[in-house]
Amino acid sequence: MNDVTKTDSPSGLSIAALVTGIFGMGIIPIILGAVDMSRIKNGAASAKGRGFDIAGIVLGGLGILTWIIVGIISAVTLSSVLLYS
Predict the structure, then answer these.
(1) Ranges of H-type helices in the chain
(2) In a 10 Å sphere around its CB, with 0-12 CB exposed, 13-18 middle and 19+ buried, how is residue 26 labelled?
(3) Choosing a second label site near 41 at 20 to 30 A (CA), which of 9, 25, 49, 57?
(4) Residue 60 pLDDT more than 90?
(5) What is the pTM of this model?
């Protein structure tokens, strides 16, 4: 059906997943990576982008985890400042 392009280079979605993962954009690289991995499985995208997708998904998960930790630390710090001031 949808053949992989002749250049056989990583797709724009895989590059976007990696870049948004590097910038810590949370859920966005996870979605982009999952969509592109689905396209790779169906043969609509080059398999060369698979590593970018995996890296984007991992970095997106780490970004979400980082934001959760920052939120918890901020809440604890703010509550202790308000409690003891």
Answers:
(1) 12-22, 27-41, 50-83
(2) buried
(3) 25
(4) yes
(5) 0.81
Query: How far apart are alpha carbons 31 and 17 in whole angstroms?
Result: 8
Q: Which has the closest alpha carbon to 3: 60, 43, 40, 38?
A: 43
The amino acid that residue 22 corresponds to is I
Which residue has tokens 């990696």? 18
pLDDT of 1 over the 70 cut: no
Place of tokens 């995996």: 54
To the nearest 10°, the Cα dihedral for 43, 46, 50, 53?
Answer: -90
**38 Cβ contact partners less than 8 Å away, ≥ 6 residues apart:** none
CA angle 57, 60, 65 (to 5 degrees): 130
d(Cα 72, Cα 68) in Å, to the nearest integer?
6
